[in-house]
Design a protein that fits this description.
The chain is built from 11 helices and 10 strands. The radius of gyration is 18 Å and the shape is globular. The protein has one domain (3-277): TIM Barrel, CATH 3.20.20. It is an alpha/beta fold. The active site is at 49 (proton donor).
Length: 281
């Protein structure tokens, strides 16, 4: 496993396992146990995923020393504001069966996210959290937070894949020392992702799959990735990306696939704000 260092000196694995859309607790627990058994040490969950308890049970059952794991969760919109966020952080700690969270993120840039961030700063100072950051923050909102918060976010987790590479957004993140983390690194299979001829051709050169080439493209640029699969064989495949490097020509070919557009949500659209804000935990 390769690591990258956050702006506060904490080291985070470049590759992790995400549990988005695994609401069934037994299934989620099984998946996390499989991922940990295969060597994953970064597990990414969220209050909104409804599976923090399953992640906590899997961590406990695994017997793996807690200090070797890196657990991420996120504060949802309905827990926004300093008091509600603070209470929700304690609830997440209890559900995850841990004394501390390695990385805590604001899940969406809506409602009183400044109040949420103040609660996260307090949790960080109290030792409940090792690093804090944000998710789905576009450059303007990220810069605003970087300039006016006491603690600069360590991470911004955003939609990032070969069709939406976040080139300009990542430049802004780098300017402020914020690490980029990719959700949806496979674009959930949209745009013929797994059969894309450029991806499959480049992967084939190294005896790798399109998925492995896509992940390697991101981690080779220092982007943290958290691919999700419920199949152990795919988890293993996704984990095996550190035994090869893409050539500069291959990197350029994959960079050319960027459309600069989201395949999911535009956070500037009023309808997106309305839709996400209606989701209750």
């Amino acid at each position: 496993m390769e690591y990258t260092e956050l702006n506060n000196g904490v080291k985070i694995p470049l590759l992790g396992y995400g549990v988005y859309q695994i609401p069934d607790h037994a299934e989620c627990e099984r998946c996390v146990l499989d991922a940990l058994d295969l060597g994953y040490r970064l597990i990414d969950t969220a209050q909104a995923y409804g599976n923090e308890e399953a992640v906590g049970r899997a961590i406990h059952r695994s017997g793996i020393p807690r200090e070797t794991l890196f657990i991420t969760t996120k504060v949802w919109i309905t827990n926004a504001g300093q008091d509600k966020a603070a209470a929700s952080i304690d609830q997440s700690l209890e559900k995850l069966e841990t004394d501390y969270i390695d990385l805590l993120l604001i899940h969406q840039p809506f409602s009183d996210y400044y109040g949420t961030y103040r609660a996260m700063e307090e949790a960080y100072r109290a030792g409940k959290v090792r690093a804090i950051g944000v998710s789905n923050f576009y450059p303007d909102r990220l810069v605003d937070l970087c300039l006016f918060a006491d603690i600069v976010p360590a991470v911004n987790q955003v939609e990032t894949h070969i069709f939406n590479q976040q080139v300009n957004a990542r430049k802004t993140m780098a300017q402020y020392g914020v690490k980029a983390e990719a959700w949806g690194p496979f674009a959930e299979g949209k745009n013929g992702f797994f059969t894309n001829p450029v991806l499959t051709g480049i992967g084939g050169k190294y005896g790798k799959t399109a998925a492995q080439a896509a992940l390697r493209f991101l981690v080779q640029q220092g982007v943290i990735v958290i691919p999700k699969s419920t199949h152990r064989s795919r988890m293993k495949e996704n984990f095996d990306i550190f035994d090869f490097s893409l050539s500069s020509e291959d990197m350029q070919a994959l960079a050319a696939l960027d459309t600069g557009k989201s395949l999911f949500l535009d956070h500037y659209e009023p309808s997106t704000v309305e839709m996400l804000s209606q989701f209750q935990l």
